[in-house]
Each structure stands twice: as structure tokens, then as C-alpha cells.
Specification:
homodimer; alpha/beta; Rossmann fold; 10 helices; globular
């Protein structure tokens, strides 16, 4: 499968590297053709890896991974180009966060979410929100955390969610540990977990934790 | 111990009844002296139970439990009266939610929370946020859900949090399963879980679930 990974930060590098390791072809996209981090990654990741602009990566990918800060995700998809997204699975793993005076801020929040915003803005894309609730290491190594902890998916397109669950399976997540929350409006449910997540991250001193949903039978 | 439980809904009834069962004296407070639900509860709950206005309940209680919808919590504490809250542990279990066209809304959110608002408005009170992340049955019966699932506390006053953890212990929660998130600003962390909680509630068809935080050692 060919993937376009949008974003050259730690999440983009982690997911891009895992996809290459799994035998997929990946172009990492950034604002410019000569982004040093993207070029360095592509050179180090072997023949299945490449680098280019957001539009290059989106054109190359049969599937798109949004691995930028959620607050710039819309601009990044606009740079990628609507035509390059049409019909494609767009996996949004972003959180729309900033820090102001040490306090985590989340925007949009509650009445909207990045996931919903992307789907509204690109109705031809098949947006699925997932993976934003865990640290990047846990994304591709669920066994880094003990227990039957969970991930979430949401989106409008049932087939896109099935493809996403299968992709998460390639990452090591059993399908029964991926909970389908419903339509893309539910992206807010998981984006709103960030303040708790950051608090727990400070508590533990690392990101190797996750939520296991326990329920009476 | 004497408790003032503010609110006559299902949460107030559940917590008031559990406190009476534990041997505490409880006055349930409502907007008026002759609230039928409060009178009915007090008559059925035995000699340790009483009913009155919010001010009556706050004056009676050595500790106060805020068991109303979070969107009216400030008004309820104002009705209770600042003098009746001074120095007291105020346990805020509320969520500031409404439903609009079937969609859960949360307000305040992100930049503020009910917990922080109450503490700011009544600096003499010792506000602790807790229990708002679980169904009312789970609040007083953690074994209704399997596993080592967690509660959270936050607040400015360390002693108030210790008293709260001890109270939760009376409810059946081992202290190691109550995570201290820090100051009252962290109340937003847990109030922002409500959209996910409601989603899971619809999924399971019941409220007997909770989050177990799993972490690498």
C-alpha cells in the first residue's frame, strides 16, 4: 500500500518508519520539497521511503496520515489539495493543542473537533480519527503498556473505519481493542481527553500508558 | 460526620442514602423547604436523614456535597451562602452538561470548569472535584465494574483531598485507585471526559463501566 504521511515531527517519523517496516511505500510530506527532517528520514528509512511537499505526499498515497498539530491540520490538507484527497482514507491522528504559560489549550473543542472540521472541509475524503489518545511509541507498540487497553475510531465511512482497524492491526492492536465511537462528530470525545492525558504524562514521567475501558458484562 | 447534600436528583439520593447507610447524618438541600423529592427521601431514609433548603443543608453539614447539574452549581452554592461554606470540604461531583438536539454540550469547558469556578467564587471553601467520571451506582459500589479502575481527585487543599480519599474509601474505593491530578484547575481534565462517557454509555447500554489507567512500570 502507498501512504502519504503529512508531517515531519516525531509522530510522522514514527508512523512513517513503522509503515515502511511493514513493507508499505511512504512519502513524507512537508511544506517545502527540501525539508531537512523529511529528507533525513527518507534517506535513513530505505528504498520504500521518500519525501516531498504535502501535495506530493497526498498524490502518492492511496491513504493519507495527518500527523501534524491539529491546529494546522486544515491548512495542511488545503496545501495537499482537495483533488489529491478525494475518495482516500485520511487517518487523522492529530490533537489541536498549544501551551500558554505552561497550560495546555485545546482548540477547537467541544462544539467542534479537528476530525469533524477536516471531514466537513473535504467531503470527498474518508476521514477517520484514531490514535490521538496515545503516545507515539504506544501507537505502533501496544505491548509497551500492560493490559487490554483500548483505542478508538470514529468516522462517517464504515469501510474507512474497517480499513483503519486493519491498519491498527498491522501496528499490533487486536481488533476487539479498537472501539468504534460512531460518526466523525465523536472526534471531539477523544480530542477532549488531552488535558487528562497531559496530566497523567506528567504524573508517570513517560507516555507509556493508556486507558482500559472496564465494563460490567 | 454531618453532611449537606445539595441536590435532590438521582445522584443526591444515591450519595445521601450511602452516607446515611454509613452512619452519617445528612440533610438534603433543595431550592425550597418543601421539595417533594427531598421530603420523600428524608422520610424513607430514616432518622439520620433530613431535608431543607440549600442554606439549611450547608449550615448543617460539616462537609458539603455538590450533587446538582454543574451548570447551576454556582447558583446553588450562592443560595447556600458563603458563610455556610467557609472552611468546609466541598465535594463537587457535578458535570456541567445539557443536551441540544440530542448532542451533549459541556459548558464551561477547556478554559474553565465547574470545580475551578466554585473554588474561585468561594475562596474560603475547600473544593475537591471527584466522582463525576462514573455513573452514580459505581460511585458507591466500585465492584459493580470489574478490574482496578480509577477515580480522580483534584483541589487546592491537600487536607481536603485526603478527607475526600478517606470518604471514597468509605464508599469502597481503595486509596491507590484514587489518582490525585493536582490543583482545582485540573477539574477540566475530568469534566472534559463527559462526551466520551456518554458515548460509551450508549455503547454499553448501561453505566457500569469505568477507566482503568494502565501504565508501564
Amino acid at each position: 500500500m502507498r501512504y502519504g504521511v503529512l508531517g515531519t515531527g516525531a509522530v510522522g517519523v514514527k508512523l512513517g518508519s513503522k509503515l515502511v517496516e511493514l513493507g508499505h511505500e511512504v512519502v513524507m510530506g512537508s511544506r517545502t520539497k527540501d525539508n531537512p527532517q523529511a529528507l533525513e528520514w527518507a534517506q535513513g528509512a530505505g528504498p520504500l521511503a521518500g519525501a516531498g511537499t504535502f501535495a506530493d505526499a497526498a498524490a502518492f498515497g492511496e491513504r493519507i496520515v495527518v500527523a501534524v498539530n491539529g491546529q494546522v491540520a486544515l491548512a495542511v490538507l488545503q496545501a495537499a489539495g482537495e483533488a489529491e484527497l478525494a475518495g482516500k482514507l485520511v487517518v487523522d491522528v492529530s490533537n489541536p493543542i498549544t501551551f500558554e504559560d505552561g497550560l495546555l489549550r485545546v482548540a477547537p473543542v467541544e462544539s467542534d473537533s479537528v476530525g469533524a472540521l477536516l471531514q466537513r472541509s473535504f467531503p470527498g475524503a474518508r476521514v477517520v480519527k484514531t490514535l490521538n489518545t496515545v503516545n507515539l511509541a504506544v501507537m505502533v507498540d501496544p505491548d509497551a503498556v500492560p493490559g487490554e487497553h483500548h483505542l478508538f475510531v470514529c468516522g462517517e465511512d464504515a469501510g474507512a473505519k474497517e480499513e483503519t482497524v486493519a491498519l491498527l492491526g498491522e501496528f499490533g492492536w487486536p481488533a476487539h481493542r479498537v472501539l468504534d465511537l460512531g460518526g466523525i462528530v465523536e472526534a471531539r470525545d477523544v480530542e477532549m481527553l488531552m488535558p487528562l492525558w497531559i496530566n497523567l504524562y506528567k504524573r508517570f514521567g513517560h507516555g507509556a500508558f493508556n486507558y482500559e475501558i472496564r465494563s460490567a458484562p
